[in-house]
Amino acid sequence: MTTHTPRDEQDTSIIIREAAKKGTLLNVAGNGTKAPMGRPNQTDASISSAAMSGITLYEPAELVISARSGTPVLEVMRVLAAKGQELPFEPMDYRSILGTRGNPTIGAIAAMNISGPRRIMAGAARDSLIGVRFVNGRGEVVKSGGRVMKNVTGLDLVKLMAGSWGTLGFLTEVTFKVLPKPERMATLVIRGLDDSQAIEALSMALGSPFDVTGAAHLPDRDRRGGSTLIRLEGFRVSVDYRMNELKRLFKRFRFMDILEGVGAEALWQSVRDVTILTDQGQRAIWRVSTAPTKGPDVAAHVAQALDAQWFYDWGGGLLWISTPANGDAGASVLREATRTYGGHATLVRAPVEVRSTLDVFEPQSDALMTLTRGIKASFDPAGILNPGRMYAGI
After folding, report:
1. What are the tens digits of pLDDT across the range 9-46?
2. Which of 38, 39, 109, 152 is the most exposed place for a label (fewest CB within 10 A)?
3. How far apart are CA 139 and CA 13, in angstroms?
4. pTM of the prediction?
5. Can you spell out the DSSP letters for 260-298?
6. Which domains does the chain carry?
């Protein structure tokens, strides 16, 4: 398969325009670290942002950074860290669960709306994304947003591109708002709670005035207990005060510890990158979003029918679930659970033959599918960009 690696927007525009004219289907990629996600592409060639790298704008005083889409995420984080700043949404690194190599790109973070545990406080990647440049399926260069947050009338192309998985356009540059790195991080660990008790505790923490930046529960293998994690970040004095108040709030729980330093960072990285489930062999991995109070119900529903392991993030609103990869990888059970309790399930990891026959994303209603087709046709009338990556026939 031919791989195009344009060096700038002009190259990109020419490649896409020619592809549209010839009907050449293009696989849109960065460095390929998330290639095993989504439905398998049936494409003729690939277009990669790997050669489009570099910071194009960084103004620490304005808390804003712009980079070409192929810029490694690690480079962006390194530049920000030198000024004591960071991407606030704590983007996940999928390489561990997908078994891929290479350097994840900042364009993929925007295109797939990738976030981590801090989303409960800072919002998703799309909430920090304030500007994009991209080439649509006609080969036209489009710019939307800029260096400041502002009200938008009409179609907000910045938010539309976030999470579009390269189906609407090839991102060439992205602009994010950033935040100062916290001075201190501390995690309150409550041990021995079952799923329902843990979600109740996390809900209490998130409903408190103490600015929780991480809220997760890691059940034990026997599902009768586990570790409930509540993270605080900020100035040292502030973290001390808020941690003491949280301990008072949870004084009825006997087994509590405070975790800091390298151990705490490694634990939250394992939550962020879902490495907790990577020892599950070649099992399928699902990402389920639901109301936090419904998380235990969804998990129990799945456990009744499947050999499943799971943990909770976002206060219970995000479940990572591993299931056997044979058959439909548990799709019928997961879809029934989201219909019953609300939410949506995305198949993140499974063999190609499974992903090619299933709805990888939560099936849409007829009305939403009609809208999705209309938007796709507006941006990519020839249907050449990542066809079928999200939904069959689109």
Report:
1. 999 999 999 999 999 999 999 999 999 999 998 899 99
2. 152
3. 4
4. 0.94
5. -HHHHHHHHHHHHTTGGGTTSTT-EEEEEE--GGGHHHH
6. 2-180 (3.30.465.10), 184-355 (3.40.462.40)
